[in-house]
Input
Amino acid sequence: MSWRRDLAKLGALFHQPKPVDDLEDEIRAHLEMEEQENLESGMPPDEAHYAALRRFGNVTLAEERSREMWGWNWAETLGQDLRFGLRMLLKNPGFTTVAVMTIALGIASTTIVFSVFNAVVFGQLRYGHPERMALVWAAEPRGRFTNPPAPVYLAWRDRATAFESLAALADTSFDLRGNPPVRLGAAQATANFFRAVDVQPELGRAFTEEEGHRGARVLVLSHSVWKNDFASDARILGQTVVLNGAPWTVIGVMPASFSFVRNDDLWVPLELGPNHPMKHSSLLVVGRVRPGSSLEQANAQLQTLQGQVAAEMPQVAASGLTSVRVMPLKEFLLGANVTHMMSVLLGAVGFVLLIACSNVANLLLARGTARRKEVAMRLSLGASRGRVVRQLLTETGLLAAIGAAVGLLLAAVTVRYIAGLPVLQAPGAPSVAVDAGVLAFTMAVTCLTALVCGLGPAWRVSKVQLTESLKTTAIGADRHRRLRDSLVIAEVALSVVLLAGAGLLVRSFVNLLRVNPGFDPADLLTMEVSLSRYQEPAAIRGFYHEALERVRALPGVEGADLCTTLPLIGWNYGIAFRSEDQPKDALQRQSANLQVVTDGYFQTTGLPVVGGRSFAAQDTAASLPVAIINRHLAQRLFKDQNPVGLRLIVSSPLDRGAEVARQIVGVAADMKDERLNEPASDDVYLPYEQSPAPWEYMVVRSHAKSVTLVPAIRTGIASVDRDQPIEDIASMQQRLDESLSGPRFAVALLGTFALLALAMAAVGIYGVMSYIAGRRLPELGLRMALGARPVELVRILLWSGLRLALAGCAIGMAGAFVVTRAMSSAVFGVSPRDPLAFTLALTIILAAAVVATALPARRAASIDPIVALRYE
Amino acid sequence: MAKQPSGDRIELVYGSLDMLILRTLRWGPTHGHGIAKSIERLSEETLKVEHGSLYPALQRLQQEGWITAEWGVSKNKQRAKFYRLTAAGRRQLVAETSRWERFVRAITGVLKPAESEEGQ
Output
């Protein structure tokens, strides 16, 4: 029947007069009939009239409800309410400004954090059904996990039925001929990789299984390389490009939004034939489980499978990798750190928003008291209570909408600024922006804000007692006191939690700044000069020797050396090792960070050699194999023994996996390998002459400005090989700063939020205190007239405010103890219950509370008693 | 604004007002006041109808197409709007009534054992 109702409504819209237009006449006739009947039954005329009215009930309400039956009424009502609300807001510019700004700050904070969250968390998971994707590692039953070798991957791929596709990637890189030459990071991928990630090229196609098997020289470009190095050439498909001196054909371009795990520049087929040299390399394995199966099922199946594999392949059993680890993609991409930091920040802005809401709610309550007479008037004129609540809520909604608009503006400006910060340039993550998702979130938050702030006060205010309120200012009990007090207590409590959290982060950040990175970052320029086109050790040695000579000869250069990884770069190479005393299979279980360095490395970087000697010209390919280990490894492996002169047995890809006994000639200080906030790990240094690696960083110590130094180095290296790219040029100080950018960002954000919260809480206390002081003016005047001194009055008022602050502090402390425990992994070198941070938080909030209470208290106490008594 | 509680009068169950109005109109067209009086009279003054609450219900029934309205003149020569049951309204009344009877039977069935227990 509802279509009929809709038709009738449409009719009501277009056909004048509306069916309800004569309602007034109809009701009047009704009342007259009733009155007539009453008269006939013998009532006096007056009585008959009022009895009819009583019998009918609320006339306005009946009319209103009847009109509402025709539906379109709500739009009219909304329009009226909005116009009326706007008038009321404009009439109170002070109130409106404070409320709008409070909401704006709350919404801006929330929007900013959510846009970061949106980019970092959702942005990285923009694959179809990311919950079905996982990385698969070979693992020891105890936990260490690593990339599986190719034969193990092949066994998984062929037998694991839980996966729709199980793909593998291997690292490689190419020099693209050009001016200047560019080094492209590439992934060799199995053909099913694009199915596993469920993304297809935007141009052209991905490579096929067949192309993978025969090792066809075809490639798929990333969008950014296509844009930057090929000027978005639309005719790129089928073109030939020269990589490492060989021709390759471009068959596809991936969409801009795509990047998997690392920022790969291009993808080429991965050959995994039984006789191919790749058969021993380690692979990154990514799988997508079938729609019906779960990651747990896939894990269970692979565990069983790996048991069989270990039984079939002795080398797998020997390595101890008899288990697997199926790591959900989300866990891999976001990690515990990011997720933790993001939840801390989201929690923090949630608190800020709550404080903002309670502030606005308090303002509305205070204003509601002032508007009591207006509300009472409207109720007595026949408005229903629901109607009054709706009107008040519309006003709050309007307030929230204006606040949201201002907040969104603030957020957009801030987001544009922070989007450029290096900390948010995560590989694979889109840039932070206020996009449709963020807008939807903000809108939802705004509606929630309006409801949270508005519902309580509107309900309270509409519950006026008619007779009492229509009289002049009634000094009765302060009816909203309990609600108002709880709001202030909540604000203080939330601020305490935020301040304590921010204090912890600041302490943790200071600790990070104090960490000794192990080397001297001043005047140290670093760059990657890795070789893709040199295969023979002699050629590799020859190139680096020449290049180092040219760079060392530049004016101002004090030293130039090679090393395989840089401190803080976030990754490193591994080398298996054991001491002579340890059993043979210990080699399979222990891995240290490998550094292959030239003789002057320790001097150039300033990393001290604390025992024995540094490498020197005497360590050549023909001399006794030697190694330097770091202090941490020395203490762990040899306890109190002096390691210099002892032998270390190592095995690395540089020696094609062979076991080599090397004499330890020196002990180096510990260096922060990956992050400043992690404990020292095991490092093994090998002399470059004995293990020439083609992937090296060059470190150059020079007082020369990098503006002149960098081009000079480029020219010098180009004169050795004009096709050799130089990548990732940065001073060590820059790298150090960058490694601090994450914690700095977190401290800055949380610090800002904590200060915002503090300011809002102070404003909240101030507002309530002014209100209380105003209400108590007559009483204060009386006390003063009876001889109380102003100091005593101030004390009375101070106590009524501080009481709330102290209650808030107590609750806040309890909350902070719980909340900061969740932060323990986000802080460094400080207990999550750090007494200093907590004491500081309490001191600050109490100081703010005293000031916010004292100002209105003093003003109230200094008023003339005559004025105070007459205040009514 | 609170309504005065009156001991022997029963507030209408939500939705039952529609049925009562339709029922009243079965005896012929009448105006709002007449409907209110009929309901009170037929229920021997037990059912309390705040006259004002009739009007929204009358609008709703018009929209559903169960009743129509036109202006006319009452017994006392007063101008009044007369409501008339439509065919659809008649069908609706039958459906509503049988639904209501089922409802009443069910409630009575539930309440009976309790009464007999009390009686013991």
User: Anything to note?
Assistant: The beta strands of chain B are 10-11, 30-31, 47-48, 67-73, 79-85. The helical segments of chain B are 16-25, 32-42, 54-64, 87-119. The longest helix of chain B spans residues 87-119.
